[in-house]
Amino acid sequence: MSLHDIGEFGLIEQLRRSVRQGPGVKIGIGDDCAALEVPAGELLLVTNDLLLENVHFRRDWIDLADLGAKSVAVNLSDIAAMGGVPRYLVLGLGLPSSLTLGEIDRFLEGFLGEATANEVSLVGGDTCRAEQFLSVSVTAHGTIPASELVRRKGGRPGDLLYVSGELGGSGLALCQLEAGQKPEPSLACRHFRPRARLSLGRALASRGLVTSMIDLSDGLLADLHHLLAGDSLGAVLYLDKMPVSEAFDRVTARRPEWRNLVFNGGEDYELLFTVPEQQRLEVEKLSEEFDVRITEVGKVKKGGKPVDVLDAAGNPVSVAAAGFRHF
Amino acid sequence: MSLHDIGEFGLIEQLRRSVRQGPGVKIGIGDDCAALEVPAGELLLVTNDLLLENVHFRRDWIDLADLGAKSVAVNLSDIAAMGGVPRYLVLGLGLPSSLTLGEIDRFLEGFLGEATANEVSLVGGDTCRAEQFLSVSVTAHGTIPASELVRRKGGRPGDLLYVSGELGGSGLALCQLEAGQKPEPSLACRHFRPRARLSLGRALASRGLVTSMIDLSDGLLADLHHLLAGDSLGAVLYLDKMPVSEAFDRVTARRPEWRNLVFNGGEDYELLFTVPEQQRLEVEKLSEEFDVRITEVGKVKKGGKPVDVLDAAGNPVSVAAAGFRHF
Prior knowledge:
The structure is a homodimer of 327-residue chains.
Chain A: H1 3-18, E1 25-27, E2 34-36, E3 42-52, H2 64-82, E4 85-96, H3 101-117, E5 121-130, E6 135-145, E7 160-164, H4 169-178, H5 185-192, H6 198-206, E8 212-215, H7 220-229, E9 233-238, H8 246-254, H9 261-264, E10 271-275, H10 280-290, E11 294-302, E12 307-310, E13 316-317
Parallel strand pairs in A: 4-5, 9-12
Antiparallel strand pairs in A: 1-2, 3-6, 4-6, 7-10, 7-11, 8-10, 9-11, 12-13
Helix pairs in contact in A: 2-3, 2-6, 4-5
């Protein structure tokens, strides 16, 4: 049984039957549009990420269930960064004929599993044949009370800079794959199965603890630049405070040139946020509540040279600011 | 100046500056998510269409400004079919390096022109490098008072079947291109620059004139099947009533085998809807109000053989029910 046998409408019908119509979904898969409820007084959050074969992933490296789950998580991460509650997903799939029905099922299994784990509903989309490469387009929708919205803009000089979780693990797994090595399971997991920091983002926003926030998809330095740019701010970062995993330490002890992935490795999908000094304690208490590292990694300052990385003695050190470059 | 020179963020920054932030847009391009207003008491409509190179279009046949406009129109057509008001667009673009900045500008010119003409705002998206083929993913958002929503389900035996505009022109232009012929301008226009029937769809829904509706993207027979399937209904169609253009008549007089495109040519983006007999006059009056042909092409009947096409004498004739097949 191939995709050609069941056809586009067979695939959509299969999806329609296997997807539970979640809360707020008036019309889900199978009409011209989905029809959805947005709570009165709340804003709709919308974000879109493309995942294209041989650009964002290689089919020989990633399990299709992981790809499905990741395509959900990277979009939900953007909703986390605004402080929102994720609600609805739309999936556009360009399917090359080399993909078997079993592979498509695995993709959807990962996609729907990650959706269910985060209480979001697949409500519609588009499927079609693709020329040669698998392409995945996900649009995620969330909601948030207008007064709780957190933006990239809003940080102030003197605010503390925090990141959730650990940095560089996803980029390190990718470097190992590119070098022909098998990444350690914990690093591979960071790369292939990222999780959006939704509960933490929601708490930071709803409790009014942060002045600005962004999720880390392009690398700490690149995303910090986006966070500061709107307000023409600068920052210092503390080299010796960067949170990394034990596996990251172990692998980069042998390959010190990969240490910089803390700053310019992509796809961490952690949150980077600015905190007024008087909120420090309340923010750090969230670490226990949500079982996640929360680390003060720097401080916002007035403009000038955008970012200084300081060593333990307070002296500036040089770090290449590559970030993920799409073109 | 190439895409590589300005980079993803350069392109996004250029878009951010050139896009006017429309009504209801609290946050547009340039943050982790767009933040949008949905009127209280209204439902959010969401639809997504992928347009992939060499599947949905050929770059040597379509002008990129037309492709940009068409990628908007085909999505808005789905909102028209629910009776909604279009509001917000999200654009995912996978850009092969063979595309010049000038070509990207032309695409965006067509995209934003069509958006502006329909009073919808581009609010966000994703751009990235693509391996070889241009891929376009558009997610369109509309709103509608919950009580006015029109679905594919809802038609009843005895309802009249209507279509807007003229059929088969887009499919005919494609056949001519595939046969190495230059399509007549009016047919080419139907294929490359379709327009969504938004005002008509809105009027039909808000005035309560229709029991079900769908837009014609896969061909009359295939989409009629979708319209009837949910209610297990059948239909008759009147062969001699099919609305076609003068150019369609002229070209198919020479190539009678293309005449069937009225039934199975794709991408007409007209509306197909069911009307209770007592609303007949009010529906037909809309033709003048919106300056569009509105033609009674058949009638809904109880289930059984799904669709009979009848000739002028009322005898069934056989029509191949191909429709556009994606896989």
